[in-house]
Amino acid sequence: MKKPYLKSIEFIRGVAMLGVVAIHVGSQYLTNPTPNLNLVALFEVVSRFSVPIFFFISAFGLFYKIDLQEKFDYKNFLRRRFKAVLYPYLIWSVIYFTHDNNFFMYGLPDFGFAVQVIFFGLAKYHLYFLVILIWFYLLMPLWIKIIKNFTPPFFALIFFLQIAFNYFSSYSTCLFEVTNALPVESILRMFLQWRLNYLVLHYAFIFLLGGILAVHSEKFFAWLKENKFLVTAVFLVTLILHLGYFYWLVYFEKYSALSAVNTAHQLSPTGFFYTIGASIFLFMAFENFHFGLIEKFLSLTGKNSYGVYLVHPMIITYLLKINFVLNAINTLIFYLVIVLISLGLSLLWKKIIATKK
To answer: Packing angle between helix 140-148 and helix 204-215, nearest 10 degrees?
Structure first.
């Protein structure tokens, strides 16, 4: 039986896309030598769930539609996914690679470096997400097998292993030293240096969580309805802990704003808990409450999130050519303008495609 369409996924996608743009605008704001720390926290800490939550809703959407009792058509699945993700990734990698080499006068690289750029998603700072998503798709039979054989103890083990692995990958000085000790041209060094750009293990738990909750969606939504207060409370606690970690690094450990942001990221323990809390909270909110005009805007953004995601870094590049100071007010305006232009271009592109069909 065909399951009903979930508007909540569309709304969450819209929220996440706004968060991704906020992170990239926040990176520009951090070039201000005296940034407003609260605005940095909003752009770079509060929005940190935005990247991993895309993996969560991607898995939810996939497993919501899949019948685990039927044979999985891996070939057809990859064909459809590659059309939706791999081909746009390759096209936009070439676009950004060519554009930035001309815009920033980098010069043409050799073939070996070009292959590295494509494999690790280095053509532009946001494209690594698609590389990880492609790896998730390639490993789909593994995720299906894990979810088919799901048991709470095994999933608890994955939960703790995820925290340990992310901590080691993010903060291990040993790993850092080993990587830097390797020859620059070493293939192993490349794979270690760019591990965050392709290694799905960093986001395995949140992906599997989305899949498991989708398989048991009726029970999940019923539980959300009965536990709205608990879900909200957990979300607020995880948000406070994650923000607290950022402010603690700045005020007590004397980190710069940039260093604090690079430490209190989505793979940190507080970031990991915050991502889980935000993912479940947003589902609860959009499944049980209505937000009027906000929902309409989030729906529009969610439906066009792919286009906004692909084009917004180029909009950032060109708007930065305008001579203005990135103070707090200007940065907020800068953010709104980027969202609106990117959304407008995405809508225009869809309209052009529709007229040619």
So the answer is: 60
33 HSE (CA, 13 A, CB side): 0
Cα atoms found within 13 Å of the Cα of residue 351, Cβ hemisphere only: 6
Rounded to whole angstroms, the Cα distance separating 171 from 268 reads: 9
How open is the CA angle 91-94-97, to the nearest 5 degrees?
A: 145
The DSSP annotation for 139-204 comes to THHHHHHHHHT--HHHHHHHHHHHHHHHHHHHH-HHHHHHHHHS-TT-HHHHHHHTGGGT-GGGGH
pTM: 0.95
Residue-wise pLDDT tens digits, 268-294: 999 999 999 999 999 999 999 999 999
Q: How far apart are CA 322 and CA 3, in angstroms?
A: 49
The size of the chain, in residues, is 357
Quote the percentage of the chain above a pLDDT of 90: 89
Phi-psi region of 67 (alpha: psi -120 to 50; beta: other; left: phi over 0): beta
Give the containing element (helix H, strand E) for 248. Answer: helix 228-251
Distances (CA, A) of 127 to 106, 139, 277, 330: 19, 19, 26, 27
351: its two tokens: 């309209």
